[in-house]
UniProtKB/TrEMBL annotation:
Domain annotation Copper amine oxidase catalytic: ranges: 2-262
InterPro entries: Cu_Am_ox_TPQ-bd, Cu_amine_oxidase, Cu_amine_oxidase_C, Cu_amine_oxidase_C_sf
Lineage: Eukaryota, Metazoa, Chordata, Craniata, Vertebrata
Family of the protein in this entry: Belongs to the copper/topaquinone oxidase family.
Source organism: Panthera leo
Descriptive protein name: Amine oxidase
Amino acid sequence: MVDIHILVGTGAVQLLPGAVCVFEEAQGLPLRRHHNHLESYFYGGLAGSALVVRSVSSVGNYDYIWDFVLHPNGALEGRVHATGYINTAFLSGGEESLLFGNRVGERVLGAVHTHAFHFKLDLDVAGLKNWVVAEDVVFKPVAAPWSPEHQLQRPQLTRQVLGREDLTAFSLGNPLPRYLYLASDQTNVWGHQRGYRIQIHSPLGIHMPLESDMERALSWGRYQLVVTRRKEEESQSSSIYYQNDIWTPTMAFADFINNETLLGEVASSSSCRTWWLGLRPASCISPMLRMSPTL
Ligand SMILES: [Cu+2]
């Protein structure tokens, strides 16, 4: 347990005892295992565990559990779960009540709503010169060597540097490249660029209709993933003032995406990439994002 000092609304320092919990978590999968019974007979394996840094935000009826997980293979994971009590409404009993959710009690409606989260990640990989790289697979037909009248579909890797912000704003509904990573100009012993791969697991679904007057303030919800140039004046995707007036937003996340270059050559000391990751859990689905080092 770790105590944390926070600045509450008055600006005074407040101590939250035990606000962060650090623990080792057994993983559902082994780190490695192999059972060989072909020519020789051997078994080797190692249990998987990870270090979890956890905090919990209690907001009204909910308790959001925030975990940052450090895996022994170098992967970093962020995940959030909604716990606590579900948000409900009075069930009038009329037919149309069930348009807004499902019945969960005698006179209780589990009203449909969305929990949407946005993670910001400032990431430099092995220095400040970084590129956003997309890799995918194309299939090329080749004759099967042992049976030339038949064709095989051989997968080939395609690589593309995504050099401008408009190429790195991935809307909901548009597929992400199969592999997406931030590559450094430093290389490993085989000459491949060192990098970190980004993975997102989050249920899809539009955040709200684009024609809504509120949508501009919530425009980060349009995207499952965006990579922008890091800037001091683009430090947050939302604003505390929206709780008073969401119809005239003081800033809009969608304006951050203005086709600025993301190429490593022009990186200055303050221009590491900022990754914005949209996550939305259902009550029983936990979204998560994961970064894995490419070898
Ligand atoms: Cu809820």
